Fold this sequence. Notes:
- By secondary structure, this protein is an alpha/beta fold.
- It has a single domain, classed as Aldolase class I (TIM Barrel, Alpha-Beta Barrel).
- It is built from 13 helices and 8 strands.
- Strands 1-2-3-4-5-6-7-8 form an 8-stranded parallel beta barrel, surrounded by 5 helices.
- Helix 2 packs across helix 13 and helix 9 packs parallel to helix 11.
- The chain is globular.
- The protein binds iron/sulfur cluster.
- Iron/sulfur cluster binds next to loops.
- It is an enzyme of class 5 (isomerase).
- One of its GO terms (biological process) is biotin biosynthetic process.
Amino acid sequence: MDFLDRLTKAFELTERNFDSIDIERAIFLSYHCDLADCKFCYMSTIKTGPKKGLRSLESLFAEAFLVKMANWKVEFLSSGYGVYDTKKIADIVKGVACITGEPVWLNTGILEKEELSFFGEELKGITASIETFTEELFQKLCPSKSWNKMMDFLDIADELGYKKGITIILGIGEKKEGLVNLFEIIKNYKIDRVTFYSLNPHKGTIFEGSVPPASLYYIDVVSETRLMFPKLEIITGIWSDRINLAGPLLMAGSNGITKFSWQKFYGSKLGKSLNSEIKEFEKISKRRFYGSMTDISLLQTKLEFPREPLYKNEAVEKEILKKSDQIKERIESYISEIKKSN
Ligand code: SF4
């Protein structure tokens, strides 16, 4: 099948199996990583002291309320390695799940079986950041992480009944032929969700002088993945200088778009531009985006929990309400940042 046929087929399969278009937001718990040596990663270029860059609970919960108000989705809670102990992460997961009314995905590194047992129905799934198609390239790029441990982590999550996701960055030296290997992993480890990103060549990394992968390559990888796995959730990351990729990625089989600073996007020219990509896509698709990228009146300094939640925990809601003044203060400051960038 040639590229255009693959694209058409991938579009048809996605239309058949999905109804919505999601805007996803990864909520960062911290800007610190104990490993800090993955060759493409921004964290490897910042020299923070131990455990610097941790966000407060109020700030995390304020962001979760705002994401909910705009009807976006929390993609996952994310952090570098060694930042919080698992008990603390479990408390944050419960809080965010109460605010959004949905169980949460995690992308906070490998957790042992006993650590995963801290979680209950507030956790939807875990993410193994395997970053690329093959073990060999992964080990070169992420010297302190272990491929085998990643795979064991997926097995343990499966055993405990959690969903499993992986993240892949395109343009970091992988060969297209290696996709076969990625597809084996998706099949063998019963992966429920793949998040694709494209390389953002950060200053100070070995990729500083590189360029991001070509848009047609990105689209082709997504469409091949969709053809192989018609029901897999596929999320695609775009950077603010590549907004025009959103429509083609959705055509190729992506279910949702992620990876942009939402303070910079919401209501701004960038947000309007992404909105117009989605609106144009909706003309050829039956899938719909039910949130907003632009309506600032949706963002308010009030704390409301969802009326018909999939997840609810009254004790945790009470704890959140005890901090309502501080959370509202953070919401207000995020809204004023958003208004400033408009
Ligand atoms: S483990 Fe994650 S946060 Fe840490 S350096 Fe690697 S990619 Fe960056």
